[in-house]
Amino acid sequence: MSFSSSEASTSLQASPSHALAPYGWDAGWEAEFAPYAEQGLLPGRVVRVDRGQCDLVTADGLIRADTAFVTPHDPLKVVCTGDWAAVEPVGGNPRYVRTLLPRRTAFARSTSSKRSEGQILAANVDHAIITVSLAVELDLGRIERFLALAWESGAQPLVVLSKADLVPDPTGLSYLVEDVETTAPGVQVLPVSSATGEGVDVLSAVVSGGTSVLLGASGAGKSTLANTLLGEDVMTVQAARDVDGKGRHTTTTRNLLLLPGGGVLIDTPGLRGVGLWDAESGVGQVFSEIEGLAADCRFHDCVHESEPGCAVTAAVEDGALPVRRLESYRKLLRENQRIVAKTDARVRAEILKDWKRKGAAGRAAMEAKRGRIR
């Protein structure tokens, strides 16, 4: 079904497309949308998705539309908060989203189900704000996981250490920041307190340009942080448990919110599981120092375990590289390889070949040992 271009142009003349500029509409999106404008469709940005329907902001205001026409079998291609869409003009009941514009960035993870399907969390994001509470002990491995997904998405990561007021000692706070900076090369690490206002001005300046998404575990303080940036209590906040600092899922849907100082913010529910999803390049970015060392290994296919001339294990032995970093790097690469292998026959074959090679090497070692014993 198509609609007359005159109907669309009349609507867009009455409410020019720049009305969507606060939500991120620009010349690039306008060029992408041009073929759909000719069909009489209207542009809109998805601000919330719920059970086969979504709310979109358009030049005519907020509308609700049905997503039946854009519900593919691939869970990574379903309508997501942050998407730009082509929606039917006024008149349809219900109105339908007809197509999505190609995403510039997409934040995806593996679900916690046994099927390990991909799940899209936010689309067309410029800044991925990984929120980590200082009310509990830092989990550096979890931060590395978030960072890998953020880099893979195409967004620029930023680590926010929330509830900084709970660390009154400036020296102690400085050490915590340094620990995270070591874990997050090339990423800004910002201690923030919604209670005292520490770091809020810097964070506000970052999010004022483009689209930002808040990510983190339940109880990390995302909703409180969102309210601070919005300047009002829009998101419901619940106290975290004193025992472990975890909170209930205050936010149950992903919501796109317009910030008063410019930019838009996507708030997300707390994530219990942070499974990788085809994030090999993201892992490499997180562990860039290991990737740099690997370039000096004797063998180009070195796996940094027991090979002679391995620059990575040498760095561990002389203390230049923390063993925790190498173990985390290996763990995330193995996990990512398992996920990719479920949908890529070539990767499955490579894994099988590697298992056979290691098995043969193990058998040869045992035979040599038995020969020496005899």
Notes on the protein architecture:
The protein has helices at 5-14, 27-38, 140-153, 170-183, 200-207, 222-230, 280-286, 288-294, 311-317, 323-341, 345-373, and strands spanning 42-50, 53-58, 61-66, 84-87, 97-100, 106-110, 118-123, 127-133, 156-162, 188-191, 211-215, 255-258, 264-267. By secondary structure, the chain is of the alpha/beta class. The chain has three domains: 5-100, Beta Barrel (OB fold (Dihydrolipoamide Acetyltransferase, E2P)), CATH 2.40.50; 106-267, 3-Layer(aba) Sandwich (Rossmann fold), CATH 3.40.50; 280-373, Ribonucleotide Reductase Protein R1, domain 1. A hairpin with a 2-residue loop joins strand 1 (42-50) and strand 2 (53-58). The N and C termini lie far apart (82 Å).
Q: How much helicity do the residues have?
A: 25-40%
| CATH structural class of the largest domain | Alpha Beta
What would the CATH topology of the largest domain be?
Answer: Rossmann fold
Task: Give the domain tally.
Answer: 3
List SSEs in N-to-C order.
HHEEEEEEEEHEHEHEHEEHHHHH
**Shape-level CATH architecture of the largest domain:** 3-Layer(aba) Sandwich
Number of strands: 13
**3D shape:** globular
Q: Could you give the distance between the termini?
A: 82 Å
Biggest sheet layout: 6 strands, mixed
What is the H level of CATH, i.e. the homologous superfamily of the largest domain? P-loop containing nucleotide triphosphate hydrolases
Strand content range: 15-25%
Strand order of the largest sheet: 10-9-8-11-13-12
Count of alpha and pi helical runs: 11
> Which stretches are low in confidence, meaning pLDDT under 50 for 5 or more residues running?
1-17, 238-251
Computed structural class:
alpha/beta
Radius of gyration: 24 Å
